[in-house]
Amino acid sequence: MLTTPDVVTALSDEAQLNTIFARSPVGICIARNTIILNANAALLAMFGYEDVAQIRGRSLVDLVAPSARAALTERAQRRERGEIVPNVYEIIGMRQNGSTFPYIVAVDTIQLADGIASVAFCTDISDRKRAEDRLRFLAESSIVLASSLNYHETIRNVTTIIVPSLADWCTVDMRTPDGGSERVAVFHADPLKQHVLERIRTNYTLPPNAAMGYPAVIRTGRSILVPLVTLSELRQVALDQEHLELLVSLGVYSMVFVPISARGVTIGALTLGLSELRASYTSEDLAFAEELGRRVGQAVDNGRLYQEAQDAIALRDQFLMLAAHELRTPITSLMGYAQWLVRQQQAAEYMPTERERRATETIAFQAERLKLLVNTLLDVSRVEQGRLMVERTPLDLCALLRRMVDDVQTILHIHTVVGDLPANPVIVLGDVLRLEQVLQNLMQNAIKYSPRGGEVRVRLEATSTHARVAVTDQGIGIPEVAQERLFTRFFRAPNVADIGGLGLGLQLAKELIELHDGTIEVVSSEGQGSTFTVRLPLYSPPIEE
Prior knowledge:
545 residues; Beta-Lactamase; 5-stranded antiparallel beta sheet; 15 helices; elongated
């Protein structure tokens, strides 16, 4: 009988090891030459076995899914060749019922009484993998949902995201203004059963007060989980016998209904369904679907807001077009009489008073400004609709500027417009009306933002490839921080708050110059004036063959 202290200690250590082996939450398997010798309870539970006798004597390969066995064989071959192979690796396991799952294996060796054996410590990582997959799914679905601001396209994207990753089929129902619902999308992984969903969508809508399904979710904002759908439950939902037969033909096994919410309001419901071939939904699946419903709601809400904004823009543009057309007739009459008054005062036999001359000049100048503003409003609408075009023909930019400088100078009182123009023609390919519109805008801005008067200089130069028009004033200038946004819509520099304007002219000028393959830029210092420079390519006549 062994009674020495050393033997008692050894027996105690062995008993402790056996206890640890039996009670360890980590699956442990002992094998020699890939043949299983022993396994603890955790490993048996992991792989779906009730007794160690069921796997003792079998190969470790039997615990690995067929798809992963080639990788396991390759590891063994590399080890036999003397290569260093990591003893911790991830692999796909196979349970007794044939289902698969991922787990991590850490392999070591131990000395047994009859020789060396291998011991594998196995940890099921299904939950971790599922969490990683779902986080990845949510990230990818957010990208897909954000890829379009079109409401209907967003709804279509919802169904393609969900099926078949999370469900065999799904439906999307949105709240209507009267408190009811409208089924806006259905999708089934099986094309044959897609027709069933379409028939249900066309012929049947559950009443808003239904105690079950999407109406209840839309009404209450609370999710519903049905782990196992029974025939009795389908009878309660069905509106008639044909409806019941259609629901049965879908092969409904498990369902979840979750709200589609945005800004704290339920705007619809998402229904996910599984067929009998898949496992039933769990509370964890429900929580995941609820998070997806929130993201869908945000995407749908963004699409709706965008559509409302587009509708408002279209309405605004329609109003601007109508208003501009209505204003053109009185403006034309006003300009005609203003120009007639100017001509009358310039006649030799007529001697106007200073007050009369200034009044006439003001009427003519302001009428011209009003005409430019109306044309600008019309063109802004055309830009929005993609209808702003130019008709380019060869024209003499020098002659155009000379005429414009003379015309504006005749109606000015406290400003002077000077043309620094070359004697020879400068030919560009352009739309004469559009270029006149741009240059007139620059000249009138130079006058408007020089409230104390002074000189406005219009300079034209020609290089070997481009014409360069610079309009320089001695006005209030533009702060440096405002210059980057100067050509954007509705932007006005902070130092012009008491000077009228809509902030549209420069944005339109930029659009028109770019349609001429040109550029426009500004150099300015606050309090020292500004220079706007337009560059246009020179016209090169085609070479006759």
